[in-house]
Task: structure prediction
Amino acid sequence: MKVIRADKMGFCFGVERAYRAIEALHQQRNGADGKPTVLIGDIVHNKSVVERVKSFGIERNDYQYIPERARVIIRTHGETREVYEKLVEKGNEIIDLVCPIVTKVRIRGNQLLEEGAEYVVLIGKKAHPEVRGNSSWIERCYVVEDESDIAGLPPARTIGVVSQTTFDPSRVRELTEKLKERFERVMTADTICPHTGLNQQTSMAIAPRCDVMLVIGDPHSSNSKTLYQKVKQVNPNTYFIHSKDDLEGIPLSAGMTVGLTAGASTPDWIIDEIEKTLLSRYGTESSKEAKPSRRAPVSGQPAG
Ligand code: SF4
Result:
């Protein structure tokens, strides 16, 4: 069997950075001073990662239930200004792991205000934690999710436009064009994160050369499911799997070429375990595109 790994797959830059910081915190000092460490929400939508973070002694909780003087981790999506202020009021120590690409949205939004925009439109999903967070940090901000929101915007001559980092770029363009029909001057800043696009492009690039494509992700991860749908359009013989156990139902054989890819919330230890299983069962040959793991799995930790 020949296994081809997509060039960009698995943890994105922001999740890798946050996970590494949590791992270092666990190894260095977590709990030594008696302070509880709490993470608001899940670090990513992946059960294996959530369980591993829990095994570090880090509890997951909603911000209302966070005790005073705790060590509080803010995940990659960020939090609202109100949550930050309440956490500080309660004497908590904040460990800010917001992805710099997410922070760039609020920075660029406020810059557009300084450059003359009367307010900023943030294109994105209203209920998404990143959008709720970033819109609260931009001084004058309205969220637009679809065309129907545009009619409700207050009158202005000049507006600024930024977007949620993971919003579909073609929808951002469409909605920006609609805004240009209504407002005289529309100042834009590109705040789309390149990771999702690269993940999809590199996965779709290998898909036509593979007999079978395996997309690895948690059933609750929307970016993994979107990746699966995109790859399946190119190669109908595509399967969505969560762990090595899911290989059981897939018709695989030694002479096949199998493509591997994974969503941004899938850790290396699951990808590596699946590749290792293929190797032991079918005798895997590496392809030119094969990439080494970005980091070795932590021994003694749960996998899959
Ligand atoms: S998808 Fe992009 S913006 Fe979101 S955490 Fe990952 S690198 Fe950051």
About this structure: The radius of gyration is 22 Å. The domain at 2-11+195-286 is CATH 3.40.1010.20 (Cobalt-precorrin-4 Transmethylase; domain 1). Residues 119 and 289 are 46 Å apart (CA to CA).
